[in-house]
Amino acid sequence: MSISRQNLTVVIVSFMSENVIHDCIQSIPEDIKIIVVDNSNNYLFKETIEKKYSNTTCILSENVGMGSGNNLGLRQVLTDFAFILNPDVILKEKTIDEIINASSILTSFGVIAPILDEENFPNFKPYNQKILSNIGSEPFKVKSVDGFAMLLNLKKINNLNNFENFKYFDENIFLYLENDDLCKRITDNNENIYIVPKSKIKHLGASAVDKKYAHQIELSRNWHWVWSKFYFNKKHYGFLNSLLTSLPTFFSAVIKYLFYFLFNKKKKEIYLHRAKGFLNAILGKKSFFRPTIKISDQENL
């Protein structure tokens, strides 16, 4: 089944993303339905977005993370296809049209993704590294795609194993590698993931959250990156593999924490959180860490 604009819904999970999300929404064709899941739980943001964009619905949520936020939006999707976007992604003029064109010639796919407009930073993991130096114009299969822009064939995925009850993304993962986990489960079911080179996007990168919360977000990123890396490898490859893969990161974090202990408070905190993420993962604790953002900060947005 090929994609059409009428059979496609865009899902965007936001968190303090007021500074970037408008450029994202404005780059999406107006005849495509958009669902924004706002993990900031900001009613003023919801009111502003829905008033400004007639094709957009905003769902308010506590900060449940990227995977759970995407699942929340996907439960409201009535179309066969859903385009997952980060709020700091901007579509090019023909991004959607090129994906639609590609879908009409592909026999079977679970995920299709556009390609990042910066060639030195591929938004996918290839089966063969040689493809990176010889990317043509035709769609090609990959192991996984980055989560900031991935189009899901919901009708196809719903018939695969381990995708019951709208649990497309693993909700144990708060941040990082939820897209890798989704892609691995899709390819483990012998379904295809494609990159469409003619479909291009711009990704601002680490800009989805207002920069005034930068340090708290950086602490969260470091905690969750290590936690998610351990969890992902443990889930798919076993505890021992996960331990051996993650230990170098842990020891590096401890050494850097000690190095910065006396003269750089922010760096010290970053590496402390990186080490804590590992320790909580190895103890089997949930991905509980959340950035500290005051309610008063949200009210002033």
Quick take:
With 301 residues, the chain is an alpha/beta fold. It has helices at 21-26, 43-52, 66-74, 95-103, 154-157, 178-188, 214-237, 239-260, 265-282, 295-299, and strands spanning 8-14, 33-38, 56-60, 81-85, 89-91, 111-116, 124-126, 140-145, 149-153, 193-203.
Please tell me about this protein's structure.
Helices cover 39% and strands 19% of the residues. It has 301 residues and is an alpha/beta fold. The protein has two domains: 5-203, Spore Coat Polysaccharide Biosynthesis Protein SpsA, Chain A (Alpha-Beta Complex), CATH 3.90.550; 211-299, no CATH class. Strands 1, 2, 3, 4, 5, 6, 7, 8, 9 and 10 form a ten-stranded mixed beta sheet that branches. β1 (8-14), α1 and β2 (33-38) form a beta-alpha-beta unit. 43% of the residues are buried.
Task: Output the structural class.
Answer: alpha/beta
Task: List low-pLDDT spans.
Answer: 295-301
CATH architecture of the largest domain: Alpha-Beta Complex
Computed Rg: 19 Å
State the end-to-end CA separation.
43 Å
In terms of DSSP E residues, the strand content is 15-25%
